[in-house]
Specification:
This protein has 343 residues and is an alpha/beta fold. It has a seven-stranded mixed beta sheet with strand order 2-8-7-6-5-3-4, with helices on both faces. A four-stranded antiparallel beta sheet has the order 9-10-13-12, with helices on one face. Strands 1-11 form a two-stranded parallel ribbon. α1 packs across α11, α2 packs parallel to α11 and α3 packs across α10. The longest helix has 16 residues. It is globular and about 60 Å long.
C-alpha cells in the first residue's frame, strides 16, 4: 500500500492546472477572431508581455516549441547555421524542427549546466566562405532545463550580444522558464528585452496557464512571425479564452515562483543526505537533477517512488529530474522528503 495517498507530480511544471480564479477569468474573457486580429484578450496579452520586457510586439502561440521554431525560421534562411548548447530544448526536444521547418543546420556547444559563453561561440562563427554554412543565429535557453534549471548571468549574455552584433548574428532566447530566472535573481525583465532580438516566453509551466507561449520581438519581426505561425497551423480563432489565463498568470503568478524555488532547495537538501544519491546539480530555481549511484538504477528508483505515488522523470540512464510548481504544496514536499529518506 502506498505511504502517500495523494499523488505528488514532480515530472514537470507542465502539469499545473488552472486555479478557480484563473478559470473564472477565462470564462469571462472577451473574444473575437485572432487571425483577423480582433480578439481583444489576445491583443491585451501580447501587449502586456511585450511591455513587461520593453519590446515592441508579441505573438500568442499554442506552445513554446512553436514560438522557438517560428523565431528560428524568421531569423534564418535554408542552409544557414544556428549555434546552441548541446542539450538545449530547440535542439534536443523539438523533433528536429530546425532542420524540418527552417532547413538550417546546427552547431552544438558543450556548455556548463546548459550554459555557453561568448568565448565558446566565437571560434564557431564561420568565415564568409562559400564552402561553409552561413552562421546566422545564436540561441540561448534560460533557465537551462537539462542544466538543472541553471540561470545565465546577465553580464555573460551582454558579451554574447556584443559578439552577435559584431558578426551580424541574431540572438534568440528560449525563455520557457525565464520568469524563474528573473524571480530567482531579482532581475529587471527589460534588460532581457534590450539584449535579445527575440524571446519565447512560456505561460503553461511555472506560471500555471493551461496553454500558450508568447513570442516577442520588434514589430517587423512579429509581422513576419505571424505569417509563419499561420503556415504552421498556429492561427487560432477565439483564442482569448486561453489568453485570459496568460493574463491572469502574468498578474498573479510571477512572484510566487520563489516558493517553488524554496521547495526545490528543500528536496535537494534531503537528497544530499541519501547514500544512494551521487552528484546533485546546483539548484537555482525549480528543477532538481540528481545522479543515482550504483548499484541502484534510475529505473528502480523511478518505480520505487511511483509506488509511493511520487512521480519523477528519468533524464538519462544515470539522472532523475524533479520539478516543483504551484501544484506542489509544502505538505507534498515534506512527504517526498520522508519517502526519499526511506528508500
Amino acid at each position: 500500500m502506498s505511504l502517500n495517498p495523494t499523488p505528488v507530480e514532480l515530472r514537470s511544471d507542465t502539469f499545473t492546472k488552472p486555479s478557480e480564479a484563473m478559470l473564472q477569468a477565462m470564462f469571462a474573457a472577451q473574444v473575437g477572431d485572432d487571425v483577423f486580429g480582433e480578439d481583444v484578450t489576445v491583443n491585451a496579452l501580447e501587449r502586456s508581455v511585450a511591455d513587461f520586457f520593453g519590446m515592441e510586439a508579441g505573438l500568442f502561440c499554442p506552445s513554446g516549441t512553436m514560438t522557438n521554431q517560428i523565431a528560428i525560421q524568421v531569423h534564418t534562411q535554408p542552409g544557414d547555421e544556428v549555434i546552441c548548447e548541446a542539450g538545449s530544448h530547440v535542439y534536443f526536444y523539438e523533433g528536429g524542427g530546425i532542420a524540418k521547418n527552417s532547413g538550417a543546420q546546427v552547431r552544438l556547444v558543450q556548455g556548463s549546466f546548459g550554459q555557453i559563453t561568448a568565448d565558446q561561440i566565437l571560434p564557431l562563427i564561420n568565415p564568409d566562405d562559400v564552402h561553409r554554412a552561413r552562421t546566422r543565429l545564436v540561441s540561448l535557453e534560460n533557465t537551462c532545463n537539462r542544466g538543472g534549471g541553471s540561470c545565465y548571468n546577465l553580464a555573460e549574455i551582454a558579451k554574447i550580444r556584443s559578439l552577435c552584433d559584431a558578426h551580424g548574428l541574431g540572438l534568440h532566447l528560449d525563455g520557457a522558464r525565464l520568469m524563474n530566472a528573473i524571480v530567482a535573481n531579482q532581475e529587471n525583465p527589460k534588460e532581457y528585452g534590450k539584449m535579445f532580438h527575440s524571446i519565447s516566453l512560456c505561460l503553461s509551466k511555472g506560471l500555471g496557464a493551461p496553454v500558450g507561449s508568447v513570442l516577442l520581438g520588434d514589430a517587423a519581426f512579429i509581422k513576419q512571425s505571424r505569417r509563419v505561425r499561420k503556415v504552421m497551423g498556429g492561427g487560432m480563432r477565439q483564442a482569448g479564452y486561453l489568453a485570459a489565463a496568460g493574463l491572469f498568470a502574468m498578474e498573479n503568478n510571477i512572484n510566487r515562483l520563489a516558493e517553488d524555488h524554496a521547495h526545490a532547495k528543500q528536496l535537494a537538501s534531503a537528497l544530499a543526505s541519501c547514500n544512494w544519491v551521487g552528484e546533485i546539480f546546483p539548484v537555482e530555481t525549480n528543477i532538481v537533477i540528481f545522479e543515482v549511484a550504483s548499484p541502484r538504477t534510475v529505473a528502480e528508483t523511478v518505480a520505487a517512488l511511483s509506488a509511493q505515488n511520487i512521480r519523477v522523470s528519468a533524464m538519462s540512464d544515470k539522472h532523475i529530474r524533479m520539478v516543483t510548481h504551484l501544484g506542489v504544496t509544502p505538505e507534498m514536499v515534506q512527504c517526498t522528503i520522508d519517502v526519499l529518506k526511506r528508500l
